[in-house]
Specification:
alpha+beta; globular; 9 helices; 8 strands; 8-stranded mixed beta sheet; disordered C terminus; Aminopeptidase; 250 residues; disordered N terminus
Amino acid sequence: MSAVATAAQTLRRASVEPESQTGLDYRLARQSAERMGAFRLIHDAYVRAGLGHPTETGMRVTPYQIQSTSHIFVGMLQREVVSTVSLIGDGELGVPMDVMFREEVDELRRAGRNVAEVSCLADRRRDSKRFLSSFRELTRLMAQFARGEGIDTLLITVHPRHAKFYAHYLGFEPLTDRVAECPHVEDRPAVALQLNFAHIDQHRPRCYDHYFGEWLAAEELRPYTLDPQELHFLKGVTTAAEIFGVACGA
């Protein structure tokens, strides 16, 4: 929640029409500087929202984000990361919401679903229209990338009061009726949602034409690999507590 909950709250206040120009360059965070900028932005967003504590590095890095199955997306203003979201692939650690909804996610796995979780959404700016544009463009890039990588189901945890937005505009559906307390972010309530790409291809939610009406160039959707030295450094930055905290920090 934290960043995602903030996103939903902002989006409910804002128009769903995009701005003509966002002024940002949206991309996968292929460069180390871009990833470090994303981790700093996430850290600041969590601390500002009261859902995380300051760290010595000024970064919030979860073990999930540095798995080979995961990728980070950024919105750049010149050389500064001002918006970010992470796509957590179902790797060795699983996905973040396993902490609260393991049984439900395992049902998808047993059904042969290739799942990934949307996590760590953060934006530096407070203006709702600019934030909405960033949200739309980042998640459009992320959704097209996910489909290109063979992911068929996106997962997310949000505060219950924000679930309607994700259902009506983006096409998410409840994964379960159960509400869980989210550890490490003040035990805020969390619900689990899923988005099945095959389902929205048929039912076309409000976002569909913007997200999939025109596909990005293949080069823009190319995955990246972390440099071994950077991976070693980031492993030292993560903490065991963050393994659980990420589940509620989507």
